[in-house]
């Protein structure tokens, strides 16, 4: 699947505001040296992440399971677009559609996800976005954080690559905690993981 260039062609999949996409874009040429952000795919036409892609001159497409009438058609189209752009690595950055086992097997060890908690806490199907932080506050944990992991057929169940702990402070609201976890963990970990995996993919291609 690799294309012979010195950078791994990478697609970032989004559904929302895209602050993690922005962190990846900002890290190009700095932390990220072996991945090229070649494509942004949004599951929602109104996602602000699309503006971020446009501002960075990155091709962006909307692929909506709802508009296509279901997950099978969605994944077919997703695969077609990824192949058309020669994509080798996929980064889920606040992407809210769960991918099928067939899709994750096809992209084995080539899909990364950022999750806003310390897996195995507050993870799995129903834990996404602000709900994760609501659950952490409701449970009264004093430390939370973020995790970057490979994606397999189990939601949030793939091999863990990086984790970083973040303190929960008295008086935190879900929004305040979400912002702290983003600033202190997500926006740091995700570019680091993209770089590590991209560099490993290139090394596997050309071990010399
Ligand atoms: C981020 O906090 C990300 O970790 C989370 O959604 C947010 C997206 O924000 N992802 C999940 O909860 C996945 N289970 P962003 O669009 O500003 O990057």
Cα end-to-end separation:
19 Å
Share in β-strands: 15-25%
Question: Looking at CATH, which topology would you report?
Answer: Rossmann fold
The tally of strands reads: 7
The shape is: globular
CATH 2nd-level architecture: 3-Layer(aba) Sandwich
Give the fraction of residues assigned to helices.
Answer: 25-40%
CATH class: Alpha Beta
Please, what is the average pLDDT? 96
CATH homologous superfamily caption: Formyl transferase, N-terminal domain
Lateral strand order in the biggest sheet:
3-2-1-4-5-6-7
Instruction: Round the Cα radius of gyration to an integer and report it.
Output: 17 Å
Instruction: Write out the distinct hetero groups bound to the structure.
Output: glycinamide ribonucleotide
Task: Describe the largest sheet.
Answer: 7 strands, mixed
Give the helices and strands as they follow along the chain: EHEHEHHEHEHEEH
Main structural class: alpha/beta
Q: Helical element count? A: 7
| Number of domain modules | 1
Given as residue ranges, the uncertain stretches (5+ residues, pLDDT < 50) are none
């Amino acid at each position: 699947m690799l294309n012979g260039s010195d950078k791994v062609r990478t697609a970032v999949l989004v559904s929302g505001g895209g602050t993690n996409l922005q962190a990846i874009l900002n890290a190009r040429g700095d932390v990220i040296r072996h991945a090229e952000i070649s494509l942004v795919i949004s599951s929602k036409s109104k996602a602000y992440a699309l503006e971020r892609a446009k501002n960075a001159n990155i091709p962006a497409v909307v692929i909506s399971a709802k508009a296509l009438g279901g997950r099978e058609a969605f994944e077919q189209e997703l695969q077609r677009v990824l192949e058309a752009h020669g994509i080798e690595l996929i980064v889920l950055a606040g992407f809210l559609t769960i991918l099928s086992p067939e899709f994750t097997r096809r992209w084995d060890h080539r899909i990364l996800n950022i999750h806003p908690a310390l897996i195995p806490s507050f993870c799995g199907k129903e834990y996404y976005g602000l709900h994760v932080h609501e659950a952490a506050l409701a449970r009264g944990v004093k430390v939370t954080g973020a995790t970057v992991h490979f994606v397999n057929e189990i939601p949030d169940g793939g091999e863990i690559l990086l984790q970083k702990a973040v303190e929960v402070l008295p008086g935190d609201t879900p929004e305040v905690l979400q912002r702290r976890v983003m600033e202190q963990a997500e926006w740091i970990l995700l570019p680091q993981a993209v770089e590590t995996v991209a560099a490993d993919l290139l090394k596997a291609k050309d071990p010399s």
